[in-house]
Specification:
328 residues, eight-stranded parallel beta sheet, 11 helices, alpha/beta, 15% strand, three-stranded antiparallel beta sheet
Length: 328
């Protein structure tokens, strides 16, 4: 079975909810001069809102064309409304999780749910994670690469990671609201540069902050081939050995913790994906596309097939690893 672990889905009526409840937080649905719907938030516009984002039948046609048997679906990062008050954030998360659960129920074997939780209030995020996994049957949870500007190693997030560890579900980290956004406004650099950099910050926080040491069984999946992180791990190791390593309670070099993380295949550059496969190993790669957005790899099966690795390792990346990770 070929599984795409990185896709985004937003039920149609959740867009209506944004238009109704999102306005106090600066979010709204607008129609641009061409007649396309856009999500407006924080002075920026995201979109257009493609039919593939909310219409299952259109998705299934694309999946069949792409050779994908199953999609793991998470909400778009623009729907991680961590700046909402906690009650509104919980309501929104519950609505989306309930709708995604219905999608999975309607199309068993084609979709699997990745939960959304209100990380701005861990006291509400943990019960919603437990509900999504225990009652709705979700197989993982998505969080942003930072939580309202806070790195993931902040002590307030420990109860969430502990809950994910106990539930034994992977945490999918997707970047948004990236560091340095004030300098990345032109040329789509918030995505082209900001996303991979913020993912690296998240990975560094998990490693240097001791999260991966404290929860050795907890599994993380990093979007977009791990961002910058896999390609600068040598620099992190050098710093550990020669600069500051003895000053911190980190018993192993940073590179050792990369074997505790998984990486999707969205590199957009075959030599980079080949490097990732050779350094991290086929056991830690999972196929992803970022469907249906503009930065998607719309041929994820082809990207894996182009790797100069064994058929067995290709099968691991295309599906076997995700089956194990999501307990399918």
């Amino acid at each position: 079975m070929k599984i795409d672990i990185h896709t985004h889905f937003a039920p149609r009526d959740c867009f209506d909810l944004i238009g109704e409840d999102g306005k106090p937080f600066g979010a709204s649905i607008v129609v641009d001069p061409s007649g396309q719907e856009m999500l407006a938030f924080g002075g920026l516009k995201f979109g257009p809102v493609a039919r593939q984002l909310y219409d299952p039948q259109t998705r299934l046609v694309d999946m069949n064309r792409m050779g994908v048997d199953m999609q793991a679906v998470s909400v778009p990062p623009t729907h991680l409304f961590y700046n909402m008050n906690a009650d509104q954030g919980l309501r929104f998360s519950q609505k989306e999780n309930d709708e995604i659960a219905e999608l999975v129920k309607t199309y068993p074997g084609r979709f699997v749910g990745i939960a959304n939780v209100p990380m701005q209030d861990i006291g509400k995020a943990v019960p919603e994670l437990k509900r999504a996994v225990g009652q709705l049957g979700f197989k993982g949870v998505q969080i942003n690469s930072n939580i309202n500007g806070k790195n993931l190693d902040e002590p307030e997030f420990l109860p969430f990671f502990e809950a994910a560890d106990v539930l034994d579900v992977p945490v999918f980290i997707h970047p948004h609201y990236v560091a340095g956004a004030d300098r990345l406004g032109k040329y789509y650099l918030t995505n082209l540069i900001g996303n991979p950099v913020d993912t690296a910050i998240a990975a560094a926080s998990l490693i240097f902050g001791g999260i991966l040491e404290r929860f050795p069984k907890l599994k993380f999946v990093l979007a977009h081939a791990g961002g910058c992180a896999p390609y600068i791990q040598g620099r992190w190791n050098h710093g550990y050995h020669h600069v500051w390593g003895t000053k911190y309670d980190l018993p192993k070099p940073p590179g050792e913790y990369f074997k505790k993380m998984y990486f999707d295949t969205i590199a957009h550059y075959q030599p980079a994906l080949s490097y990732l496969a050779s350094t991290q190993g086929a056991d830690y790669l999972v196929m992803g596309s970022d469907y249906p957005f503009d930065m998607a790899d719309m041929s994820p099966v082809g990207s894996v097939n182009q790797l100069g690795i064994s058929p067995k390792d290709k099968s691991k990346i295309m599906g076997t690893n995700a089956e194990r990770l999501l307990k399918l």
